[in-house]
Structure formats: structure tokens, C-alpha cells
Target: Ferredoxin--NADP reductase
Amino acid sequence: MRVPPASCTPGDSRMFTIEVSHASGGIVRRSLKQMLVTYSSLSATLQLIRNSGARVLRITPHQQANNSPSTPSAAVTETPSPKAKDHGQVPVNLYKPKDPFLGTVLDNYSLLADGAIGRVNHITFDLSGGNLHYVEGQSIGIIPDGEDANGKPHKLRLYSIASTRHGDNLEGSTVSLCVRQLEYKNEAGEQIYGVCSSFLCDIEPGAKVKITGPVGKEMLLPPDEDANVIMLATGTGIAPMRAYLRRMFEPGEQGKNPEYKFKGKAWLFMGVPKTPNLLYEDDFSRYLSDYPENFRYTKAISREQENPSGGRMYIQDRVTEHADEIFALIEDPKTHVYMCGLRGMEPGIDEAMTAAAAKSGQDWSTLRPALKKADRWHVETY
Model:
């Protein structure tokens, strides 16, 4: 999909209509009064709307909103996109809950530096002796030992795979996960820990674990070596991104993939609360040093950085900061966007893309479904 760019001059007098939703009595309703703003104040106005807790539903050029015959709206120009991937050969549900694969824990170590918040571990399982294989972007299910309060076996939990199809040992016989221990307080003020995440973070090497899957075709990496890949991750949502980046840039992986030599642009946006919570930082820094023309790395560290309004810097703020550049990349039909992590980042990212699209006279609410249909917009949030 090719979008003709709009010209921009210091004296740009274009006007935009912003439609906003807000909560009222626990019900989200659409505001009856629309906001009319100039191009120069568009970004600042969007930031104020977000800070107020409201949500931008749509941004349209004022002429387009009024159907002015003197200024026709820009049309979406579709260009041939790469053919959607054939997922027929992707392995799915090789092992099911009633007959899981019994894997062995090879390694389990913390990914966090001193001073980090919470607990996040990298856990590797041996898959030898079975037929459990996978590709980048898929997930596996873990069935924790023990029973629930009703005396029934615990239900499985799905986790995004953090390793490539060749595994961390490059022998095709392991799978790795990036797991954060779920921790929260209930209404009584009691500290509660997640059943499966605690099981995994506490498990010792040599232990046996029931594994199902693999599942998922939403987050698969395009086979095109010239593709551009934009990755938006928070916390352990980095898992599939680590797999993508290892496939692209890890020397051992490159030797295993003679048919795949990444030549495009990879741009990772990573959101964490503190610097010690950055995951796989040494690897990403090495890729940045070794492949400066192909890899870009942007961080949002919420408790250490401020956004332009003086609030905490979240990943959606970084996307807003680079929205025009991201949208320019999305104009290229070879660009894919991957989003994994907390669902709370989605509205802010949509707002940023809405504003960037509006500057070109486009409607993001129309463009995003088109990207999804073209297999170029991939989301796995929770």
C-alpha cells in the first residue's frame, strides 16, 4: 500500500478534526463535540488528550470531514504487496494437552540486573526424543505440576517462544522461553503469585515439564530477506523479537540459514520500567554495533525518562516521537509491524499512527485493517 506524502511547510495552515471518546459513568461514549486544530498544534493536542485519559477515535483533514468539493481528499493508492504467506507448512498442535511432550529443563537463569523490578527468567528445555519443532513467532503451552483448588490438574498457559527454530544451542533440539513471574495483591491485600509463571521461574535443571504445541501463525516472520521489520515490545513481549533478531543477526544462526540473509531494516522499540529490566541487552547492543545499517534500537524506560509532557516515557510515547518516520516505512509494502506485550500500549500507538496518517490525508482506521489483511500488521497482546 503506497500513500502519497503530503507536503509540509512552516506556515502550513491545514486543519484537522479530532474525534474523541471519554468514559462517563463506566461507559465509553463518543463525544458529540469534535475538536478542530491546526497542523502545527496537532501533536501537542493529541498529547493533552491522552494525558486527560480520553482516547482519539479518528483524525481527518478538515476539508475531508466537510466534503469540500474544492479540495478533494487524498486517495489511498494501492501498490502490489508481497503475496500473503502460505502458512500450510507451519507446524501446529504436534502435542496436545491430553498427550503433552515431556521436556527436560536444561537451564533457568535470571535476565535482570541488580535493581530491577520483579523477576524474569530465561528457561531452556531439551526436546530430544520427540517431534516438537517450531518456527519463529510461535508459542508453546506449559502445564504446571500440581492441582488447582478443586483438585483438578492446572490448566496450561501459553508462552511466546524466545528462540529460533534451531534453538539456543543451534542443534534444533531445544526451545527457550522468557518468563516473568506474575505477582499482584488481591482485594484483601494478600500477595498472589502466578501458578505457572512461579512454577517455571522456580524449576530446576533436570526437571521434567509437560509441553504442548506449538501454536500460532499470527506472529510469523516474513521469509523476504528485504523486508523491513518494526518491533514494538514491552517486558517479556520481547520473546518473539529476540527470535527474529537472532535469525537475522546472530552469526551461528546465519550459518544455519544459507537460504535467508536479512538485508532489510529492523527497528526494535522496547519498553521497560527501569534500565536493569532491559532484557537481552548485550545481544541487542552487539547487533547494533555489528549491523548499524540494518538494526535500530529505541528504548522507553518509564521510571527514568520523561515524555514531552513531563510524564513517564512509555513505548507509545516513543512511537509518537517517531510516528512520521514509522509511517513512512509502512508506506513500503515490504514493511511488517509486530507488537507483543501489554495491551495498554495499543491505544497510544493507534493515536500516533492516526496522526501520522492524517498528515498525508489518510484514515488510519481504514489503513490498519488493510495492513492486517495484507499480513503486515501482527499483534499479540495481553
Q: What stands out?
A: The chain has two domains: 101-215, 228-381.
